[in-house]
Amino acid sequence: MENELKTLTDAVNQFTEERDWDQFHNPKDLAIAISLEAAELLEVFLWKKPEEAKVEKIKEELADVINYALLLASKYDFDIYQIVMEKLRRNAEKYPVEKAKGSAKKYNEL
Amino acid sequence: MENELKTLTDAVNQFTEERDWDQFHNPKDLAIAISLEAAELLEVFLWKKPEEAKVEKIKEELADVINYALLLASKYDFDIYQIVMEKLRRNAEKYPVEKAKGSAKKYNEL
Amino acid sequence: MENELKTLTDAVNQFTEERDWDQFHNPKDLAIAISLEAAELLEVFLWKKPEEAKVEKIKEELADVINYALLLASKYDFDIYQIVMEKLRRNAEKYPVEKAKGSAKKYNEL
Amino acid sequence: MENELKTLTDAVNQFTEERDWDQFHNPKDLAIAISLEAAELLEVFLWKKPEEAKVEKIKEELADVINYALLLASKYDFDIYQIVMEKLRRNAEKYPVEKAKGSAKKYNEL
Questions:
Q1: Which of C42, C93, D52, D105 has the fewest Cβ atoms within 10 Å of its own Cβ atom?
Q2: What is the CB-side half-sphere exposure of residue D25 using CA atoms within 13 A?
Q3: Using an 8 Å Cβ cutoff, are D15 and C92 in contact?
Q4: Distance between CA B32 and CA A39 in Å, rounded?
């Protein structure tokens, strides 16, 4: 499909506009919302082994995280494809393969 | 661009494989990682008005959230385009325009 | 020791006042701060088995969570001893021993 | 009251033991639980001005955060009074009054 990210962004923005919710969506509260949805996603795993978590629930909660991530990106006109690729380039510098391979350490501890 | 989400997913997976990090990436820890990156994003706004937060920092932290969201989706072979669209359909049922318009209430309080 | 919670609360409030930080400490940002400190605590466990996490780091991050919890409680003049005991009573109703024993389910699934 | 923190800790531990929940309470999941309760506390403020949040709800959610903080402290035999006082001493070094007064900057930016 062409322009998947634009199509998704348009869809979440239309959903927001139809409900007149843009008045609530300042970037700070959108960042709070992303954090709350991430917590709901994490709750699916609470007290459980990873493989015991319900996949259907993970799917829904992850969709909510991405939904708000799209809304926040849209506020700043970020191009998600670009910012993820750019961040991978930066991470590649912080975590060079020869140092980071097989290690779970943070870059400042490598 | 064609298949943006697949291209991004392939890129984050390749980054992970090159560093042999897949051993750490069970779904529960990935969900924790999403939550921690969401917290770093939120920290950019701490003690600040929304417009005072540094846009460059928001961009980087939001990219990290999406990065881990892509990795988790990939673990379960979720199609992000599909799950976001499906969630919007469900949300449209929970928040019908005529009830939800202009209201910040949760669906169970509408 | 007498009045441990009052002594701690006075200490964190004095720390804040000496630095003139009360201007930043509205309840919403304090709630964000608690959430961010909880994330830093959780980060100590990321990619690790529970027993691999560094105890010294857990101690510090947990102290930060409690520090902000005391500040938020103080904003509303909550008596921490009372509100925790009161919450235990409510939880005892939501999770009666005979139903909840040995189960990790939420009260609405019991 | 004497030994408030010990009394509270005993109460939350007794609550746990009566329900045979100790089997779920490894430190990593307790840290997740603190983070989730902090998110529920933060949700009370979502899309709202600080003064619009419901105080009764804040009280309950804050109690939940402290509840799990007591359980985690108890796992490691931390003395909460000591670790908070010790952290204040460390923070006083990171944020000396003459540098930090009136500033919301992090210690590494002061």
A1: C93
A2: 21
A3: yes
A4: 8
**Is the whole model's pTM more than 0.90, yes or no?**
yes
DSSP letter string, C12-42: HHHHHHHTT-TTT--HHHHHHHHHHHHHHHH
- Rounded to two decimals, the ipTM of the complex is 0.95
β-pair partners for D84:
none
Interchain CB contacts (distance < 8 Å): A and B: 189
For residue B84, list chain A residues with Cβ-Cβ distance below 8 A. Answer: 8, 11-12, 63, 66-67, 70
Residues in chain C within 8 Å Cβ distance of D102: 19-21, 23
- Interface contact flag, B29 C46, Cβ < 8 Å: yes
List, for residues B9-21, the tens digit of each pLDDT value. Answer: 999 999 999 999 9
Cα dihedral A100, B60, B57, B21 in deg (nearest 10):
-30
Mean pLDDT over all residues of chain C? 95
Q: Which residues of B touch D41 (CB under 8 A)?
A: none
| Cβ within 8 Å, pair C62-D55 | no
Give the list of residues 6+ apart from residue C3 with CB closer than 8 angstroms, or none: D1, D4
Burial (CB count within 10 angstroms: exposed 0-12, middle 13-18, buried 19+), residue C14: exposed
Chain B neighbors (3+ CB pairs < 8 Å)? A, C, D
Distance, CA of C64 to CA of C43 (rounded, Å): 14
Q: For residue D55, which amino acid is it?
A: V
Measured between beta carbons, the chain D residues lying within 8 angstroms of B48 are 104
